[in-house]
Each structure stands twice: as C-alpha cells, then as structure tokens.
Write a structure and sequence with these properties.
The complex is a heterodimer.
Chain A lengths: L1 H13 L8 E2 L7 E8 L14 E10 L3 E4 L1 H4 L2 E7 L6 E10 L4 E6 L21 E7 L5 E15 L6 E8 L12 E4 L2 E10 L4 E6 H11 L12 E4 L4 H7 L9 E6 L4 H4 L7 E5 L2 E2 L5 E4 L3 E4 H8 L5 E8 L2 E8 L21 E4 L2 E5 L2 H4 L6 H4 L2 H8 L1 H4 L8 E6 L14 E6 L2 E2 L6 H5 L6 E6 L5 E5 H14 L6 E2 L2
Antiparallel strand pairs in A: 1-9, 2-3, 2-5, 3-4, 4-7, 5-6, 6-7, 8-9, 8-11, 9-10, 10-13, 11-12, 12-13, 14-15, 15-16, 16-17, 16-20, 18-19, 20-21, 22-23, 22-29, 23-24, 24-25, 25-26, 25-27, 27-28
Chain B lengths: L8 E3 L13 H4 L1 E9 L12 E12 L2 E4 L1 H4 L2 E8 L6 E9 L4 E6 L22 E6 L8 E15 L5 E8 L11 E4 L2 E10 L8 E5 H10 L13 E4 L4 H7 L8 E6 L14 E5 L2 E2 L5 E4 L2 E4 L1 H5 L6 E8 L2 E8 L19 E4 L2 E5 L2 H7 L4 H8 L14 E6 L16 E4 L2 E2 L3 H9 L4 E6 L2 E8 H14 L6 E2 L11
Antiparallel strand pairs in B: 1-12, 2-3, 2-5, 3-4, 4-7, 5-6, 6-7, 8-9, 8-11, 9-10, 10-13, 11-12, 12-13, 14-15, 15-16, 16-17, 16-20, 18-19, 20-21, 22-23, 22-29, 23-24, 25-26, 25-27, 27-28
The chains are: A alpha+beta, B mainly beta.
Chain lengths: 492, 492
C-alpha cells in the first residue's frame, strides 16, 4: 500500500520537470484543499513497534456536506491529518470519516466545521472514452495548475489491494511534478471525474479511480457500519475453445458463458448455489460473453466484476443463469462484501496493529500479505517461497482451515533459546499437542506444558523444539527489558 | 539435501593447449582431455542439442585407466587424450562416470598411450597449512602448468556438477582455473586430491577446491564390481540438541551428546526404522555430539560422513533413544536415493510426450534451466519435492512445458506451465502414466492440472486430424521419449 503511494511519488518526481504544463489557469482553486498526512505503519518484521513516521502532502477534493475525498492509500496508518488552504495556508486538523482500502477511497472531515465554508464543493460526473479531461495540481503559490489529456479507456483492473478488481479510467497526459501530487482530481466541465491512482511517467498513462466507484463508495458511506464493495466470489475461465464448449455440451444455440473454475468457500456464489464447473450464462438478464464480459449500458463490453461490485451493492440479489449438466438453471445470489478478516492470509492489515506473541524469545505472528510486503517491491520473489505460495493459493490450500497461519518469524536469542537462534519462517502447527489455528490459541495451549516443558511443533524442520516453562516465566521480565519490548504479546 | 545452492561456484571449464617435453615422471602421467560434447535439447527434445568443446586434465590412475572429473567428460560425443612428448591424439571412452562426486574413469583405445606413464599413487588427507602442487592444463598458456598452494580448509561442500550432492572437500589457495579440472594435486609424490571447482569472477580470491582421497577411493572401490552404485545417503534430517529444555524433553543428560531426527524421508533407507523425535547417540559406535559431529580418523566431521563411506549393501548401526528408551537400529543401504530431478542431469536424452502440440515433460533442474517457468506452483513443487515428499504423489512432476501452436490448441495457452494431475480420470504419477493415458481412444481427452479446476479438453478427432500437420510443421522426429526415473539418475 505504502509502496504504491511512494512509487507514485517517485514517478511524479522524475517525470518531465522539463516539460511545460499545457495550461496554467490563474483561477482561485475553489474546490480543492491541501491534505497533509503523517503516516506511521506498523513494522511487521518487529510487530511490537511502528516504523518511523513520514509525511506527505496531497490534494483533497472538496465534496458536499463538508467532506474531502482522497485515496485511501494517502491515509493508510495515518497518525495525523490536516487540511491546508491552498491560498493563505491556514491549517486545520482533520479526521478520517470513512475509509475503504479495497476501493482505495477515504472521506475526511475538518475538525473545525467552518473551515471548508468558503469553498465550492465539486459534483461528480462520469466520463466517456475520448473526453478531454483536466488534471488539477497546485503550484506552491496556491494557484491551480491544469494539465489536459484525453480519456483513452474504461476497464476493470486490479486496485492496489490485489484481490479487488474495479473500474478504472485511463488517460494520457504529461504530468509534472509538484508538491502535494497525490490523489490529484481529474475534472470535466467543472465536475469531478475521478482521482489519479497510478501514473507511469514513461508512457504518460494515468489510471483514474473513476466517478462510478466514488459514487458507490459515497452511497455506502451513508450507512453505518460501512460495508464495502460486494463481490460474487468466483474464479472463472473463458469458454472460447470450441472443443471445450462441445465437451461441456454447450450446443450451437448457446453463445457465450464463462466456466466457473472455482468458488470462494462460503462466498456469495457458493452460498447461492453456484458450483465449480457451472457455466455462467446470464447475470441480471444480461448475457455473459465467452470471456466474462457483459454489455454495460455506459461502457460497452466490460468485465462482469463491474456489474457485481460497482453497479450492485452489498445485500443486492442478482439473478444468474447457469448451464449445468446439460440444463439451464436459475440461481439467486446475494452479493456480500468479503470482510478482510475472513481470509486465512489477510491481503492487508492497515490501521490495525499486527498480532504477535513472544514466547521465550520466539517471535510468533499470523501470516498476512502485509507481512510479505515487508520484503519490498519484489516481495513475490524475495519473501519465503512457501508463504508467497500459500498467499496466492489460499482459496485452494486452506479449504478446511486453519483459521490463520501462525509462524515463527525469528528468534530473539537468549539463554532460553540456545540452539534455536537460526530458526525462522517456520509454520507453527502445535503447541503442547494443541493445534494452533490462530495466535489466540496460544495462551490456552501454554497451560498444557508437560514436565515443565513446552513442546512447539513446526510444519518444517526441525519439526519440534522444547522450551522450559519455568525458565520463561522467571526470565520474561528481564528478557522483555533487555530487548526493550513494549509488550510480549498483542492478541487483538 | 541441498537445493540450488552456491550459484557462484562454477565447475571449472575446459581449455586448449598443445604439448612439450617435461622429463618428469609425474608430468608424464598427466593427460590433457579434449571433449566434443553435445547438450540435451529440452526445448525441442526430439532434436539434438548444441555442440560444444572443451578440455580438462586427467591422470593415470592404474596401468590402463585415466581418472578425471565427471564434468570434463559429461555429454561427450568424442573424447581424445594427449600427453607430453607425444604428438598423437588418443581416442578415449568413458568407462565409469559418477555425477554425484564429479569423478570419471576413461579407457584409451590404444594401449600405446600408457607407454612411459606410471600410475600415480593415492595419499591421505593433507595437513592444514601444508603445501600441495596442482598439475594441469589451465588457461593462460599451452603447456602443462604446476601451481603450489596451501591447504586452507577441510569441510563438506556442495559439488556443483550435480548441485544436489555435498561431500568432503579440501580448499587450497593455489590458483585453480578452467582447464585444471580433473588434474591431480600432489604432495610428497602422492595424489592427495583432484582439482575440480573454484569461484567465478571476483567472489573470492585464491580459493580452489579439490576432491580429497576418501572420495576418490570411495569411487574407485564402488566401481570395482564394474558398476557405479552411487553414494549412500541416510535421507534424514537432524536437529541439534544444544538447548537444555530440548535435552530434557528428549530425555538426554547434560553430556553434549545426541541429535534429534527431524525428518525421515519415506523413500530413503531409514523409512520405517527411524522416527521423527528419535535421538541418535552413536553411529557405528562413534559418539555423535549435540551439533551432529563425530570423530573420524582424528577429524571432527559431520555424522553423514560415516554414511558417505558406505557402499550399496553395507549396514550402519545407530544407537538411538526412542521415547527416552535406548535401542539399536541397523540401517541397510539397500538402495541409493531414487529421486534426482533436482540434480543436474547429463548423458541423458530428455524425456517427453508430445500430444496435440502439447509438450509434456517431467520437471527437473535441466527443464527449469531451459524454460525459466514463472508459475509459482512449479517452483514450489520443485523446491519442496523432497522436503514435502511431493514425490509420493508425483514421482515425476509432469509439466505442460510448451505448446506448439496449432488450430487445435490455440485456446489452451492458459494451461502452459500447469502440472498434470489426471488424464481421463487416470492419476498421472509419471510420464509413462501420461503416455499410457493419451494412448487410449476416448471421445475427449480431459486433462486436469493440479490446483486448476478448469480441465483442458481435446477432441480425439481433432487430435488425430492435426497429428501429421503438427509433426510436419514442427519437424517432430518422434512424439515421445519415455525413460524410467532410474535412467535419468546421476550415474550410469
């Protein structure tokens, strides 16, 4: 998450400083405000502490009802948020009202309700391919810098949280680096079309988080608790191959349809009766083509995820027609948002402290993609191969639990762990014979020591080790002090 | 088992030079070996691979045999040997080759080669800090070269020729370069080692490695019966017992003895004899220290060195502690470790099955080298083939490595790099299973891949119709080459 933001910063910085803006309008920036954020993510490699704080400046778009819209990436793990008037520089503390890391959007509110009074909120509007769009930036003087470009594409693609594909707009525009260049608003006819989410300075392609997704988010944000974007929970594969179609028994009268290669366990599709091996032919009365697209009234052929996630809301019921064993079948699927906690390996842990348990110097954690991302931009190559594989294949590999994967991150050496210093990245299967399905299972398991020894079992070599229970109790305080650990455990 | 370690260590290649007189008995017995080699072709396995050439060193080990490194004569199509004071090139053949310890024995067709040569006698393990002389034909000149160095270290090391094996290795600080490979290292007129590998580039300076006499003698004794049986291996994992709680848990006293068995390979010789959690106290009467070392001929070496010195059919006696009760276990080395796909393979024609333009090949180190698969499952199965005993279900991991494009398979690219699980409900454990299943005549060939629910489907009529077309278009000389696991092993 942070990496993506940082990347954007770098890209913008290296971008054409020698390229001139296409247009500089000296008008007063009535509808944007600077947003200064101090972020401080938790350190998943040393889960008892946070990383050093860092600050970034962005542009927030003022919406009605005293709210400011930014991307969620900007406020991830934020310690402090403030607004700054573009001209004049007055500042006011702000709070995050609603944030959705999957849709990458956040709504902020000033602590002083009068602060946004002088500004004019922006309305939203949709854009179409070929529209001329303006990207707003702020000069250091506070004047608006406008760069124009044409919208080239509307498509469904992955958002920074990898698991959730949603609609994006794309445009081509030569953006320059300016202070506070995050979450730049994109405007058409004085209305907000979206926020820039990613920018590639080599191709000048900007990816825009578009108005339809923003509107969906704002709609959801009216309800408490915030539910998030619904998903259907299927994995699918095209049915273009005529041999495959004949094998499935799809005769010439049936066109299109996607093959359901897997369903998310207990997900909306599975709950609604959709099965692995079905061919999904229709959703909401709309035909599904061989590649999993439908004909959207606004964007034409586009991936089904747009229909499920953006056009529909959590709790909506969609009617699906599937082809199963030679027959068409109608199913009703109630779309639900998938809570991040329901993943075995959670795709993100933001604004939440990582859980951990330090047992006699063994640092135990629950595996999450957030932890894997500590290995940097190349984490898929650099993080332990087994963990990356588990993350990628979790729907297949953890069909029957465990709830979470508990692993030994590293050993903080002491007299309790002589001989164990080199152990790391090992999956913990049992403690004192009790299966460990989450860190919360540990305290109870520790009550079952035999002969004063804790037996820890791992999924890999050395398979098992012992710790002296009495020694741990006696040394715990001194150990904690020696390593200056603020706590030895955090279980929620 | 060592996986893909030490990429920086290279087997020393080969070089070229003619000869001149050196009136010295040792020099007379050192030969230059020229190898015209041909690699296996894994991308188009029905075609021969690249031709190459190189040279190394060998020496007269008995009245009519030459000893050299396996890597000097691997993949040989034509071998000649030359010696000083003799203009003739003598044709040689490989009699025995041991890829697991990088040694080979050559026969020379014309007995005249051995006129005036004298077999070099084997010595023992040289003392640390003592001086040795390296004989050979390395880069940097034409004539026989002799360099001197000091014995710096005696240790277990990976033999990079196979990469899967480690044996005793002696590090010397003499310059060992390409072309030195296979050359004798002498001390006091006796061979104390065979120069075989070094570091490439500027990783380390003045570091050369030689194969010490225990390994050479093991090889020579193994082939006495005319067949090389390979090194024996216990195929277990061990963990240290340095930790006091660990010792208590395992029922050990405070005597610094014993290691815990942390894994027992089900395909290894200890399967059914040892269990995870057993403590090994002694091997053939030699006490095992808590770090896994034993004393052997005055040296402190890893306990596996005891097994290293065994031959097919030998036994080893282990004194163990199981559930805190002492007992003796006899392990018979009745087979060498069978699964060698993680080792470099030589002198083998790549096994494959081509069906409907789909190329199926068993996963191996050579295959990975030829394709650089991106699929994380392929890499996970490769790396964990032994540690997670994937061989139990997939003794050969059959990968759809490539697709020769044709109208019948043009929609199948999503399956590339998939691991075959079933063909028409036949479980696929080996390439032969796949060939047998594909030899049947169903209406549809339904191929299922591991972790991928959408099956690959080919119509028999389409496959039959495309067969000649694909053969012609891609110049396919043969549609399959099926070898048993045995013949791809690191010996012959």
């Amino acid at each position: 998450m942070r990496r993506a933001v940082f990347l954007l910063a770098c890209l913008l910085f290296t971008v054409a400083r020698d390229v001139r803006a296409e247009e500089v309008t000296p008008e007063t920036p009535l509808s944007v405000v600077r947003v200064n954020v101090t972020q401080q993510p938790w350190d998943f490699a040393r889960p008892w502490g946070k990383r050093p704080p860092y600050s970034r400046r962005a542009i927030g778009t003022i919406l009605s009802d005293n709210r400011v819209l930014v991307t969620a990436e900007l406020v991830a793990n934020a310690n402090y948020v403030e607004f700054e008037a573009a001209e004049g520089g007055q500042k006011v503390p702000a709070t995050v009202e609603v944030v959705d890391y999957e849709a990458n959007l956040a709504l902020l509110k000033p602590e002083d309700n009068t602060f946004l009074k002088p500004f004019k909120p922006l309305e939203l509007t949709h854009a179409s391919i070929g529209d001329m769009l303006s990207v707003w930036q702020l000069e250091s003087t506070g004047t608006l810098l406008v760069t124009k470009g044409q919208m080239t594409t509307a498509e469904v693609t992955r958002y920074p949280i990898d698991d959730s594909p949603l609609l994006v707009y794309r445009m081509t525009t030569p953006l320059q680096f300016r202070d506070s260049s995050f979450t730049l608003p994109v405007v058409k006819d004085g209305k907000l079309v979206g926020l820039i989410m990613r920018y590639d300075n080599t191709t000048n392609n900007a990816e825009i988080l578009p108005a339809p997704v923003i509107e969906h988010f704002l709609q959801d944000a009216k309800k408490a608790p915030y539910e998030g974007f619904a998903r259907v929970g299927i994995y699918s594969s095209p049915t273009r191959d005529p041999q495959f179609r004949r094998y499935l028994g799809l005769d010439g009268n049936i066109v299109g349809g996607i093959y359901v290669s897997d369903v998310q366990r207990d997900g909306p599709a599975a709950t609604g009766g959709l099965e692995k091996g079905d061919v999904l032919l229709q959703v909401d009365g709309q035909a599904v083509d061989q590649d999993g697209n439908y004909k959207d009234p606004e964007y034409g052929k586009i991936a089904l995820a747009h229909l499920f996630s953006t056009r529909h809301f959590d709790g909506d019921v969609v009617k699906c027609v599937v082809f199963r064993k030679g027959e068409k079948k109608e199913l009703s699927i109630t779309l639900k948002h998938r809570p991040v906690e329901s993943y075995v390996i959670e795709p993100y842990v933001i604004d939440r402290a990582p859980k951990f348990y330090v047992l006699g110097g063994l640092v135990l954690e629950e595996l999450s993609r957030q932890y894997l991302k500590e290995y940097g931009a190349e984490w898929k190559k650099k993080a332990p191969e087994q963990f990356v594989y588990f993350d990628r294949q979790q729907n297949e590999l953890f069909k029957d639990g465990p709830k979470k994967v508990v692993f030994l991150n590293r050993v903080l050496p002491s007299d309790m762990t002589i001989g164990y210093e080199e152990l790391n990245q090992l999956i913990v299967s049992k403690i004192n014979g009790v299966a460990i399905q989450s860190l919360s299972d540990i305290p109870a398991a520790l009550n079952k020591a035999t002969n004063g020894l804790h037996k820890i079992e791992f999924d890999g070599e050395p398979r098992m080790i012992y710790l002296d229970a009495a020694q741990i109790s006696a040394n715990e305080a001194a150990f904690q002090q020696k390593y200056r650990l603020p706590a030895l455990q955090r279980l929620n | 088992m060592i996986l893909r370690l030490w990429p920086v260590v290279i087997a020393l290649g080969l070089f070229v030079s003619p000869l001149r007189a050196q009136p010295n008995e040792i020099r007379k017995s050192v030969a230059r070996i020229n190898n015209t080699m041909q690699d296996a072709n894994y991308r188009a396995p029905w075609l021969p691979g690249q031709l190459g050439g190189g040279s190394g060193t060998g020496w007269v080990v008995s009245a009519d045999r030459i000893l050299t490194n396996a890597h000097v004569v691997s993949n040989a199509r034509f071998l000649t040997v030359e010696k000083e004071n003799d203009p003739k090139k003598y044709i040689a053949t490989v009699e025995h080759i041991a890829h697991d310890c990088d040694l080979a024995i050559l026969k020379v067709q014309d007995p005249a080669f051995f006129k005036g040569t004298k077999p070099l006698a084997l010595g023992g393990i040289p003392e640390l800090e003592s001086t040795v002389s390296v004989f050979g034909y390395p880069i940097g000149g034409e004539r026989l070269s002799v360099t001197q160095g000091v014995v710096s270290r005696i240790d277990f090391r990976t033999y990079t020729h196979s990469v899967l094996d480690s044996h005793l290795t002696i590090q010397i600080d003499a310059a060992i370069n390409s072309g030195n490979s296979g050359g004798p290292v002498l001390q006091a007129g006796k061979v104390v080692g065979v120069a075989f590998q070094g570091f490439s580039g500027d990783v380390a300076q003045n570091v050369g490695y030689m194969i010490p006499t225990p390994v050479i003698q093991h090889f020579l004794k193994d082939i006495e019966d005319g067949h090389y049986d390979r090194y024996m291996d216990m195929s277990i994992g061990i963990a240290n017992t340095l930790n006091p709680a660990m010792r208590k848990g395992l029922g050990l006293t405070d005597d610094d003895r014993g290691v815990m068995v942390s894994s027992v390979q089900s395909a290894g010789v200890c399967a059914g004899k040892l269990e995870v959690g057993d403590v090994l106290l002694a091997i053939d009467g030699r006490e095992i220290a808590s770090d896994g070392m034993v004393e052997l001929e005055g040296e402190r070496v890893l306990m596996s060195e005891v097994a290293e010195r065994k031959y097919l059919g030998d036994e080893v006696k282990l004194s163990i502690l199981r559930d805190k009760k002492p007992m003796d276990v006899i392990i018979k080395f009745d087979r060498a470790w069978p699964f060698l796909m993680q080792a470099n393979s030589y002198d083998a024609t790549p096994p494959y099955v081509l069906f409907g333009g789909l190329l199926f090949q068993p996963l191996s180190r050579n295959l990975l080298g030829a394709y650089q698969f991106q699929n994380d499952r392929v890499n996970f199965f490769y790396d964990n083939f032994v540690t997670k005993e994937i061989y139990k279900e997939h003794p050969e991991i059959i990968v759809l490595s490539s697709i020769l494009p044709d109208p019948i398979n043009t929609y199948l690219t999503e399956f590339r790099e998939g691991i075959v699980d079933e063909i028409n409900d036949h479980k696929i454990r080996t390439l032969k299973d796949a060939a047998d299943a594909l030899a049947e005549k169903p209406e549809f060939y339904v191929i299922k891949f591991v972790g991928y629910a959408r099956p690959l489907v080919l119509e028999r009529s389409a496959v039959d119709a495309a067969r000649e077309r694909i053969r012609k278009r891609y110049n396919v000389l043969a549609e399959q080459n099926i070898l048993s696991t045995e013949s791809t092993s690191a010996s012959r």
